[in-house]
Amino acid sequence: MISFDNAGFRYGGGREILHGVNITLEAGSFHFLTGASGAGKSTLLNLMHLSLRPTQGCLSVFGEETTAQPRRKLARLRRKIGVVFQDFRLLAHLSVFDNVALPLRLAGERERDIKRDVTEILEWVGLGDILDAAPQGLAGGEQQRVAIARAVVTRPGILLADEPTGSLDEITGHRIMRLFEELNRLGAAVVIATHNPALVRQFPHARLDLADGRLVRFPVAEREA
Q1: Which stretches of the chain score pLDDT less than 50?
Q2: Residue 119 sits in which domain range?
Q3: Is residue 106 domain-resident?
Q4: Number of domains comprising the chain
Q5: HEC letters along 27-73
Q6: Is the pTM of the predicted complex or chain greater than 0.85?
Q7: Residue 100, domain member (yes or no)
Q8: For 20-48, what is each residue's pLDDT tens digit?
């Protein structure tokens, strides 16, 4: 699904944020992404989402080398990637329903199918009673769940999430993690950036750790009792 070959990244003429990244994430893989604040986790997620290009080395997504691809081709690949940003990026002029429906409409899905899929996923994240609400009137945790619903409604081949449970209570956070695991069982590669060591201990998935610009993979840890 995602393959880095000696990839690196720097912003302008600044220091190199990432360097020597060599890793392949297969379909059906599930990884936590950890590292200190400022280690480059968000940069790595943006590279995986094709919002940024490596400044050195190569990146392949869905088997296609992307480094020199035109923007229109990258846009096509991004439609198969679900992403939950830390700042949510909800559209204020659209309702909760229409925010979640947006990627399905961009993909040309039929409205009756959109209504079914969006209603189902909003019920799952506990927002089935506020379909017509404006996102700016919601609490932070509710906005986060709308963003999660939008990311997963298309059943993407790759799901990237930056602190997706940060504003959620423990019960809701675990429910969202089970949703991510279900999507993973359907074949999606999942990468979740987190500062929460308890979350990593509670769910038995491999870990990618960023330190000094380098990425190290750790095996699956045992689930915490």
Answers
A1: 225
A2: 91-150
A3: yes
A4: 1
A5: CCCEEEEEECCCCCHHHHHHHHCCCCCCCEEEEEECCEECCCCCHHH
A6: yes
A7: yes
A8: 999 999 999 999 999 998 899 999 999 99
The amino acid that residue 183 corresponds to is L
d(CA 212, CA 83): 25
Strands (E), the chain: 2-10, 16-25, 30-35, 56-61, 64-65, 81-84, 158-162, 189-193, 206-211, 214-218
Q: Report the pLDDT value the prediction gives residue 41, as an integer from 0 to 100.
A: 93
pLDDT of residue 38: 87
Burial pattern 27-66, b for ≥16 Cβ within 10 A else e, equals eebbbbbbbeeebbbbbbbbbbbbebebbebebebbeeeb
| Residues 168, 181 contacting (CB under 8 angstroms) | no
CB crowding 159-188: b at 16 or more within 10 Å, else e: bbbbbbbebbeeebbebbbebbeebbeeeb
* Token digits of residue 78: 């991004």
Residue 86 pLDDT: 84
Give me the amino acid identity at 145. R
194 in any annotated domain: no
Whether 162 maps to a domain, the answer reads: no
Interacting residues of 68 by C-beta distance below 8 A, sequence separation 6+ = none
Q: Cα separation of 10 and 89, whole Å? A: 24
pLDDT of residue 97: 98
The whole-number pLDDT of residue 221 equals 64
